[in-house]
């Protein structure tokens, strides 16, 4: 069976296009008491950028902490709070920030129209009702959340996306000027999330011509950016934003693989941020992705990136086993990499050996 895919809705693209957000939201503000829910990355708190957000008096703006990966309980808390403050539903939930904030926006908007806790919907196609309108505006690029049909959440028992045709955003604003101030090495780690998506999607059984074509162009842009000596120029910001968009789209037509499966396990116990966690894991995966890891190490060298070591050094044996448990639940990722017989290749011993090297 082929999946009848839903992509992101409308796309406003160009340098300083953010200044048109007021017009875009204006089209949705039909009723007198309609309001917008803005979720804004804590990075912008107190910065001049806040004055550029087209905030009306009835709107709600929430600053979102991103130290931890997005949590189902935070999604549930935001929805409950907004419902207690306003009678109707927001005309749009706008996420301004990195992958975490965009994922919060994509998840929150679904939980206004679906009963219960967001943790009940982690997995594929559990969402029953269309969410409210959602706008995503990346201010750091790489995760691909701006275009993906997944919103990755950590719940009480698992880290897994709410995935399905109701998840992609309705409106995307791609303004390369917004990512200019992202500090290194965070910018590098998040960009490498995109690099890893592309390497994983092309190395596996679910590879398609569509996914591979989008991923190849995304990879070409990333290599242009990070194999040169001036990766942080305005021109490279724009290339990075587009690489992230294409890489995220590519995943819709393929799947992630070993790095994401292991890094989800690692994050569940250590709370390590997705971009950094992926870099720490990918650095040890020559066995699965020899060419990709070689080039990754070259990009780290050129950009003076030194990864943390001993990430699992203080973990108890039980915690290591818990990481393995989480990783092994991501069957679709392992099947993409190794095929239906994946369990013969991906043993607990192999995962334990890799985790202990990180
Ligand atoms: Fe990722």
Instruction: Note the gap between the termini.
Output: 39 Å
Low-confidence stretches: none
Tally of separate helices: 13
Q: Calculate Rg over CA atoms.
A: 20 Å
Structure keywords:
358 residues; 3-stranded mixed beta sheet; 13 helices; 9 strands; globular
Topology:
Blueprint: E1 10-13, H1 21-26, E2 36-41, E3 60-64, H2 72-85, E4 92-97, H3 99-111, E5 123-124, E6 134-138, E7 150-154, E8 159-163, E9 171-174, H4 186-202, H5 209-226, H6 234-252, H7 258-270, H8 274-282, H9 290-302, H10 317-328, H11 331-338, H12 342-345, H13 348-356
Parallel strand pairs: 1-9, 2-3, 2-4, 4-6, 5-8, 6-9
Antiparallel strand pairs: 7-8
Bound molecules: fe (ii) ion.
The site of fe (ii) ion has 5 residues, from helix 4.
What does this protein look like?
- With 358 residues, this protein is an alpha/beta fold.
- Helix content is 43%, strand content 12%.
- The chain is built from 13 helices and 9 strands.
- The strands form 2 sheets. The protein has a 6-stranded parallel sheet with strand order 1-9-6-4-2-3, covered by helices on one side. The chain has a 3-stranded mixed sheet with strand order 5-8-7.
- The longest helix has 19 residues, at 234-252.
- The two termini are 39 Å apart.
- The mean pLDDT is 95.
- Fe (ii) ion binds at residues 143, 193, 197, 260, 274.
